[in-house]
Amino acid sequence: MRRSMKLAAVVLSGSLGMASLAACGAKSTDNTSSSASGDGSLKVGMAYDIGGRGDQSFNDSAARGLDKAKSDLGASVTEAEAKSGEAEADKETRLKNLVDAGYKTIIAVGFVYQPAVNKVAKDNPNVKFAIIDSNDKDQPSNVTSLLFAEQEGSYLAGVAAANKSKAKHVGFIGGVQSELIKKFEAGYKAGVKSVDPNIVVETTYLTTPPDFTGFNSPDKGKEAAQGQLDKGADIIYTAAGSSGNGAIEAVANKQGALAIGVDSDQASQPALAKYKNSIMTSMVKNVDNAVFAYIDSVKKGSAFTGIKLFDLKADGVSLATTGGKIDDIQDKLKAAADAIKSGATTIPTAPVQ
Question: 295 and 179 in one domain?
Fold first, then answer.
């Protein structure tokens, strides 16, 4: 599905009964694309986080779930993208535009949408909203939280890093110092220390709220990774959206160093193909599974409500095996995963200092 014209100029097809988004007063810096199959009775709007479709990471995973809903469920879909540095009002406008265009199922990708989702959902009780990676106890009843056990997948990434590090020195780079990304850090560190408590773990965050550019700044990711490599780290795990692409590039330029990707299987991403030999694994967050499952529940008339958790047991998180670089430690990874699934191992959600 191609990215199309500016939102203020887009007029969705009348044959699908869609309203013009231009009439909603959207900013010209927003991009949308629309596509459909089936009879148009299942209309789904998706509002992406910064980076949008094509980020090779978090948003792309959500996009795969939307694409599957289109092909398998006959959904009519529209996508809207965020822009770096936008105001809260822009997020509200984006969601309102989707509502005004007739979309009764709207998925917001990323915790940054929570205030906007709460406001727009409250004003539109007949519209179903889902938000990925956020849960507000005060959110309206027509909002469903799609959550993941990032700490569990990150723990496995830490186990892999500790077993593969020759320098006994690894790194973690977080895009934005938020409660969500701290779950990645906490799990990763716990996994590393479970193998060898003496391994050094470098930690770098690219930005702190309200600055969320850490999710969309490959140059910052590259600089942070280079700093950790210079300190002696030989394996670096980056949870930072498209900023991670820069970190992977820096690692690829260091002989003997390896990167751990995030959200998508980054070693299989076409845009990162030239670095694939330097990507040891990726902590895959199966956002696509969650997006598809939510849309499917709506179609079946039994929409998820409240909190829907996708953990290791539910295949919400996993480690990618592309490239075969962790094939030799699969027994150790399986043992660690089994201990998590059985409850024998509990993973912290906040970093232990």
Answer: no
**Owning domain of residue 202:** 150-284+323-342
Question: Structural domain tally of the chain?
Answer: 2
Burial of 126 (0-12, 13-18, 19+ CB in 10 A): exposed
52 and 172 in a single domain? The answer is: no
Query: What are the start-end ranges of the H helices in the chain?
Result: 58-73, 88-100, 114-123, 150-164, 179-195, 218-230, 243-252, 287-299, 330-342
Residues 160 and 269 in one domain: yes
DSSP line for 35-91: E--TTS-SEEEEE--TT-TTSSSHHHHHHHHHHHHHHHH--EEEEE---TT--HHHH
Nearest to 263 by CA among 244, 249, 280, 248: 244
Phi, psi (5° rounding) for residue 200? Answer: -80, 135
pLDDT 10s digits, 179-203: 999 999 999 999 999 999 999 999 9
DSSP string over 132-149: ET---TTS-TTEEEEEE-
Model confidence pLDDT, tens digit, residues 46-68: 999 988 998 888 899 999 999 99
**338 and 263 in a common domain:** yes
- 117, part of any domain: yes
- The SS3 of residue 11 is strand
Same domain assignment for residues 156 and 112? no
What DSSP designation does 6 have? Answer: B
Among 221, 271, 273, smallest CA distance to 251 is for 221
Tell whether 349 is covered by a domain.
Answer: no
Query: pTM value?
Result: 0.83
Residue 345's pLDDT band (boundaries 50, 70, 90)? Answer: very high
- Does residue 50 share a domain with residue 156? no
